[in-house]
Amino acid sequence: MKKQIVQEETHPLTWRIRNNSKTVWIQEYKNKLGYIALKNTLKDMSPKDVVNVVRRSELRGRGGGGFCTGIKWELILNNKNNDICYLICNADEMEPGTYKDRFLMERIPHLLIEGIILSSFALGASCSYIFLRGEYVESEYILEKAILESRNSGYIGKNILGSGFDLEVYIHTGAGRYICGEETALINSLEGKRANPRFKPPFPGISGLWGKPTCVNNVETLSNIPGIMLYGVDWYKKLSYSNDTGTKLMGFSGRVNNPGVWEVPFGITAREILEKYAGGMQDGFTFKAWQPGGASTDFLTFNEIDTPMDFENIQKVGSRLGTGLAMVVDDSINMVSLVLNIERFFSRESCGWCTPCREGLPWIVKILEDIVQGIGRSGDIEILEELCSNLSSGKAFCAHAPGAIEPLQSAIKYFRKDFELGINVNIKNRLDIVSGIQCNFITG
Length: 444
Description:
The protein is α/β, with parallel strands linked by helices and 444 residues long. 44% of the residues lie in helices and 11% in strands. Helix 4 (47-57) runs antiparallel to helix 5 (69-80), helix 4 (47-57) crosses helix 7 and helix 16 (355-372) runs antiparallel to helix 17 (380-390). The N and C termini lie far apart (60 Å). GO terms for molecular function: 4 iron, 4 sulfur cluster binding; FMN binding; metal ion binding; NAD binding; NADH dehydrogenase (ubiquinone) activity; quinone binding.
């Protein structure tokens, strides 16, 4: 019992989870203080009170962007003018190397559902959608069952717990496109359109799903809401070691002894996660590089392994926290081959809406293929660097291209010799071949 109390106080996302990998269904969830926050909130608080609590908690989005959740909610309230609004849970988890949202949905679905209900109440949304990655078949089954359990218990539907608040929650499975992680592309897909990003402004908080104010939050973000409402702002802030409040699902994959995901406080160092939780490197393998938060984050080296895992500190050393699930690269891996695999993925997943992304990423893939085969040309590395510049933030329509080039630009920065080994100086310079052709990237 003492161990459970410690977990409850320090691990709001995971303390209820079973050790046998089985799903925590509604009765067990209620026995472990589930839906208490919802009951107390509907009884004693107004929607604005909830928004104020979440804003003061300084909860940041857990999908990778890290935007302040309370501020996003306030933007909805300031612009809805008694209009219909929607809450969308972004469960389209397609970042390579990331599996934290699936972990929550399949192990403790009612935590997410309670978070959705509380958030919908705060926003005044009577309809919420879970936009789920199509390949997450087991997650869909579990969520459907959990929603039915919640409805049968009076937590979803008309006049929830006698409060006068109505809510319907639906699951929409995507068609398997990475770009749907971008909130406006997700909204287009949900409307039955092609999953292209939209022009911003207007932002979804003003004109989103079917032209109505819409809030899009990540699975892990929404799963934090019940704990904040149950235990309060001060408790939540004290969970962290850094300026970013609360806990975060983080992990390590790759050639480690115990790959996985764990709930840890913000500010814990990458070294501690690697050595204490992931069990360090496997015998016979040496640490070479790591990505702190998914395939679209810059590589870092062992020199940055003692960096606190939070948004600000990871940015200071030249990368992004992203999803918080790190990947370690061992010394047996050729960095060019690894980056080629990553860029193939991003090239394939481009929606093709803007020229830099549509044309630039396949060009990157072609050059990397030549370098891997040892037939790279003099000047290829410089072309790759120029492409990274042309696809950087602000030069493409959305964040897909800037995220795609982060691993490439950092791999060239730290492991340029790996690229130089694939250059054959006897092959005619690629720039000579396209002499006289000026390729200007434009957005459109």
